[in-house]
Amino acid sequence: MKKIVMRRRAVFASLVVASLVSIAVLMFSAMRRGGILPVEGVLLALFLVMLPWLVIGFWNAVVGLLLMRFFRDPAAAVNPLLKDEHPNAPLTTSIAILVCLGNEEIEGVARSVEIMLEDLLHKGVLPHFHLYLLSDSSWDDIIDQEEEALPPR
User: Fold this and answer.
1) Which of the 8 DSSP states describes residue 90?
2) Ordered alpha helix ranges (H), 32-139
3) Which of 97, 102, 119, 113 has its CA nearest to residue 150?
4) How far apart are the C-alpha atoms of 67 and 78, rounded to whole Å?
5) How many CB atoms are located within 10 Å of the residue 104 CB?
6) Long-range Cβ pairs for the range 56-61 (8 Å, 24+)
7) Of 17, 38, 80, 129, which has the fewest Cβ atoms less than 10 A away?
8) What sign does the CA torsion over 135, 136, 141, 142 have?
9) Please, which residues have CB within 8 angstroms of residue 59's CB and are 6 or more apart in sequence?
10) What confidence score (pLDDT) does residue 153 get?
11) For residue 122, with 0-12 CB atoms within 10 Å meaning exposed, 13-18 middle and 19 or more buried, which class applies?
12) Residue pair 59/78 in contact by the 8 Å Cβ criterion
């Protein structure tokens, strides 16, 4: 299993590096015609700083699309430990549900959380889940709404 993981990482790294080099060369060759002005040099540097995140995100999306398209169980294809897991096996761990908010209207969020908790209760697994509200709100009226709508459980 370790060889498979290392092979996957090597293929992914190769795709990322090849894409980075190709795109960087293309951008540089497009900009060097007529010389690169200092402002253009700054833009090129900023482009090269952001490029790895764009390329990694692109290849993650491509790999995810291929996994979802060609594998019956994409999660098990990525994580071989899930192949042995029975879908109806009882939960034995504690799971945190994080609700992250920041100065936003709470009604829609509260309704979605209630629906999710009702579904977990209906399935009989609610005791394994713990709800946490992570609020970055700074407006007093929004904070009051959050505390009223999502009281501590």
Assistant:
1) P
2) 38-70, 74-78, 107-123
3) 113
4) 8
5) 16
6) 56/16, 58/19, 59/12, 59/15, 59/16, 59/19
7) 38
8) negative
9) 12, 15, 16, 19
10) 53
11) exposed
12) no
**Per-residue model confidence as pLDDT tens digits over 7-55:** 999 999 999 999 999 999 999 999 888 888 899 999 999 999 999 999 9
Burial class (CB in 10 A: 0-12, 13-18, 19+), 106: buried
What is the spatial distance between Cα 91 and Cα 71, in angstroms, rounded to a whole number?
25
Q: Name the β-bridge partners of 135.
A: 101
Tokens 């899930």 correspond to what residue?
A: 82
Residue carrying the six token digits 């498979």: 4
Question: How buried is residue 113: exposed, middle or buried, by Cβ count under 10 Å (0-12/13-18/19+)?
Answer: middle
Which residue type does 62 have?
A: V
Which of these, 71, 67, 84, 78, lies nearest to 4 by C-alpha position? 78
Instruction: Quote the pTM value.
Output: 0.60
The token pair at 85 is 């897991």
Structure tokens at 78: 């990525």
For the CA atoms of the chain, what is the radius of gyration? 24
